[in-house]
Design brief:
Pfam families: Lactamase_B. With about 350 residues, the chain is of the alpha/beta class. About 20% of the residues lie in helices and about 25% in strands. It has 8 helices and 19 strands. The protein is globular.
Length: about 350
């Protein structure tokens, strides 16, 4: 529990929600700033958390590799890699990074100042992901949590069950190309690994937007098995194959020419049938890189912070739940997207 401290040591006095994002006053840095900042601690590589053109950037080696691949010379002016469990001083603040279980390189930012500890979890999930280390609960005084799927209706089924649906469809419709829409960073590579674990050892074919990040994952030690670029090949040859593409490509001109394509999308939002119907998704797979309702509420108990700040997503439902469980909870209402380009 939070110990009695002077007003200047309470996290609300030194960690502030600003127009640019969460700002740490004694360290003079932002965490996942919404616009370029002079100093930034970045939790992971998704574009709504990792912006280009920051001055000095601190992140895990995996996140820095992702930012470098996405932004090139515009990623930052100066960078510092910090592995999970290592610590560094920024001004008067001790900073460390703990695994978040979201995507490759994802981390929770752990800030300690004058005896108080704040954990900014970024985006996270609690279930196993074969492409990154699992989330680690860190005891703290204030826990900052997302709430992307912060409603009780969002309870994600086991990943293996969703992947099995795709494998059964391939057996049932061997004459149809299965166009699988998934976000290019994190979701695509996790799906590939889950398919491999499910026994699918055939080549998986990639839209042009997927190749670079799959190569990056391989270079970071995540084996993905045989992959093939669709490129300019004859699409008629891909009957009965899996073609992995960004969700936007499912309705794009690019999707034409495949043999009787069967549209698949992997997203936590596929729990909402109307979302699937709007995108003409024939086979919705409920699979997300964010925590569902049960994982969010369990994490509050596991971390045990007396104070909870809730960021983007279904903030007020989770705040209401947390207050009912005895937490001092509030919504930060930070600007930010929920699950980048999932649908």
């Amino acid at each position: 529990m939070m110990r009695a401290r002077g007003a200047d040591s309470h996290p609300e006095s030194w960690l502030r929600a600003t127009d640019g994002g969460l700002y740490c006053v004694p360290g003079d840095f932002h965490v996942d700033p919404h616009r370029p900042a002079e100093r930034a601690v970045i939790t992971h590589g998704h574009a709504d958390h990792a912006r280009a053109r920051n001055g000095k950037v601190l992140a895990t080696p995996g996140t820095l590799a992702i930012m470098r691949a996405r932004y090139g010379a515009e990623a930052w002016r100066e960078s510092q890699a910090l592995d999970h469990g290592e610590t560094v001083r920024i001004g008067d603040v001790t900073v460390s990074l703990a695994p978040a279980g979201h995507v490759l390189g994802s981390a929770q930012a752990v800030l300690e100042y004058k005896g108080a500890r704040v954990v900014i979890s970024g985006d996270y999930k609690r279930r196993r992901d074969p492409t990154c280390p699992p989330f680690e609960p860190v005891a703290c005084d204030v826990f900052v949590t997302e709430a992307t799927f912060g409603l009780p209706v969002f309870r994600h089924p086991p990943d293996g069950e969703e992947v099995a649906k795709l494998l059964r469809s391939l057996e049932t419709f061997p004459e149809r190309t299965h166009l699988l829409g998934a976000y290019a960073l994190g979701k695509a590579q996790r799906l590939i690994r889950l398919l491999r674990e499910g026994g699918y050892d055939r080549p998986i074919h990639l839209h042009g937007a997927m190749g670079a990040l799959c190569d990056l994952y391989e270079a970071q030690g995540v084996p993905l098995g045989p992959l093939r670029a669709v490129g300019d090949r004859d699409k008629k040859e891909l009957a009965g194959e899996i073609v992995l593409c960004p969700p936007s490509a499912l309705s794009d001109r690019w999707s034409r020419g495949f043999p009787d394509p069967l549209t698949v999308m992997a997203s936590g939002w596929m729990r909402v049938r109307q979302r699937a119907r709007q995108r003409n998704v024939e086979l919705p797979l409920i699979l997300s890189d964010h925590a569902d309702w049960d994982e969010l509420t369990r994490t509050l108990e596991d971390v045990g912070a007396p104070t909870v700040w809730v960021t983007h997503g279904r903030e007020y439902a989770l705040v209401h739940h947390a207050r009912g469980r005895g937490f001092d909870a509030k919504a930060l209402s930070l600007v930010g997207r929920e699950e980048e380009d999932e649908t």
